[in-house]
Amino acid sequence: MFVATGFVDPSFFHQKELLTSQGVPSTKLSHRSGISHRMSTTTDPDPQQGAPAFIPLEANPQLMTDLIHKLGVSPALQMHDVYSLTDPELLSFIPRPALALLLVFPVSAAYESHRMAEDSTAREYTAKGDSEPVIWWKQTIRNACGLMGLLHAVSNGPARNFIEEGSTLDSLLKKSIDLDPAERSRLLEQTPALATAHREAASVGDTAAPDAQDDVDLHYVCFVKDTRGGIWELDGRRKGPIKRGDLEENEDVLSTKALSLGPLKFLEREGGDLRFSAVALAGSLD
Fold it and tell me: CB atoms < 10 A from the CB of 149, how many?
């Protein structure tokens, strides 16, 4: 059973330009003025009642930018709204290369069926150390999927070079490299500076913040390109990082190939559900 969030503006579903005449969703995406995105999930393998809990994070690029800067990402990077996954004109507003893409999506029956089928044949991820192609964080904090998405975005690929020495993120990464996923999760739970920064960010969004223990049925997943060209799907609800393919040197996470390997498959699975949004990590416009 999927719990209704109460955060969707009903007027959003009257935006007919988001549908084709056949009722199939276009690849234009909602943004925060039409839908309030505060995300987590309500089914296994989510953190259970009694686990540490954060206020769900709104998918607001300015709020997210402030949060990653507070945690230690250089002002040279910021988060950007993505208004389409296929329209070249709308994609051109985002500085390139885009270093990471956060997709916000409904945890539907179709998605859960897909996830369980994939995870049924996957082993639990146990890798650690400098040889890992990506850093993956398992989510053990309720309603922290937005934070997990941001951590995945800034910890991997070229974005990692923009983390400032001595910052909260710098300390987390240095401590995490030699830890297994369970130990990394405990480190996140036991980092007060992370919890404080998240709480401050989650409390100042465009919509009223829900309670940290609320069930919310939208979720974040992050797509990143590693230093060798691999495109990865990073989601703390899964058994580990998932490599979706390989990109050429001149292809980023918003390239046609990257989008077809990841985000567009989510939209195809969901049919007429419009509760999708995307935010990209890229160069600052300031």
Answer: 31
Specify the pLDDT at position 10: 26
Greatest distance between any 2 Cα atoms in the chain: 54
| Encoded tokens for 95 | 């500085």
Question: Count of CB atoms within 10 A of residue 96's CB?
Answer: 15
Distances (CA, A) of 137 to 260, 264, 283: 24, 23, 24
pLDDT 10s digits, 68-122: 999 999 999 999 999 999 899 999 999 999 999 999 988 888 899 999 999 999 9
Residue 152 structure tokens: 């995945």
> For position 48, what pLDDT does the model report?
59
For 149-160, what is the mean pLDDT?
98
Q: What is the pLDDT of residues 35-70, one digit of tens each?
A: 334 443 333 556 556 678 888 888 899 999 999 999
Could you tell me which residues are beta bridge partners of residue 80?
Answer: 280
How many CB atoms sit inside 10 A of residue 89's CB? 8
Q: How far is CA 34 from the centre of its chain?
A: 19
Among residues 165, 181, 171, the alpha carbon closest in space to that of 127 is found at 181
Other CB atoms within 10 A of residue 275 CB: 20
| Helices 145-155 and 168-176, axial angle in degrees (round to 10) | 80
Q: In b/e form, how buried is each residue of 237-272, taking b as 16+ CB within 10 angstroms?
A: bbbbbbeeeebeeebbbbbeebbebbbbebbeebee
Q: Hey, what are 50's tokens?
A: 């009694």
Catalytic positions are 145, 219
| Residue 2 and residue 108 in contact, taking contact as beta carbons nearer than 8 Å | yes
Q: What is the pTM of this model?
A: 0.83
User: What residue ranges define each of the domains in the chain, with the CATH number in brackets?
Assistant: 27-283 (3.40.532.10)
Strand, coil or helix: what is 221? strand
